[in-house]
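Researcher: Go.
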Amino acid sequence: MRIIAFINKKGGVGKTTVVANMAYVLRERYGARVLVVDNDEQGNVSQFFEGKGEHTLADVLLERVPASDAVEHTRYENIDLIRADFSLADANVEIREMDKSGKEWLLKNALDCVGEDYDICLIDNPPQINASVVTSLVASDEVVIVSTTDFFSVNGVRQMLNCIEDAQKLNPRISYRGTVINMFAGDGESLSVVAELRKVTEVLPVKLHKTDGGIRVKTATNRLETIFEYSPRCKFARDMIEFTDYLLGA
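Model: Structure:
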């Protein structure tokens, strides 16, 4: 199972939207078996996939249950979920206070037990750096920073790069793939921020454009639909396919 984490310390950059729609592309275009792990106590991607399982990621990280017991099917065949809720906040405190060697590997060890059941695992991370984010990075094969084109994003990307470097000291196999620009407008201000980002990191060649002022993506999300179900021919939908193809090397 190939594990890809999506991160940024800044909120509102669209990580959850990217994860949900990429899972759909992987299922539809590649026939992949996908596991989505919600590592955010807000549980937004869990709400999108209507997660209602008895166990959550907090239970898995605290070793109360194996990951297989927390996995639940979604309305999409071949897309499964390990959901999260506010119990993850308490779990982060417990993990931080653990007097246990190797606690950074808790998620990796848990996911290894379901690795034969899936082709790809996508981890949606919160807009912060905490204990569960560290376990997410250590568990991952690849990491992608999701950023928008406001000037606050540049500093957020710098902080995440430091976090990735720290995780790579524990797990040198982690590959940082680069930063993907989401909600790209293509105007002068956006291009200026992209130029600043290129000074500190690799910016991926595929950008996820903001179409119709972001209304289509927002409406699709509010309806608990992927963009491919709501507006499959819009620019964002085409970008998501191109982005997925790029990450998979197609």
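Model: The chain is about 45% helix and 15% strand.
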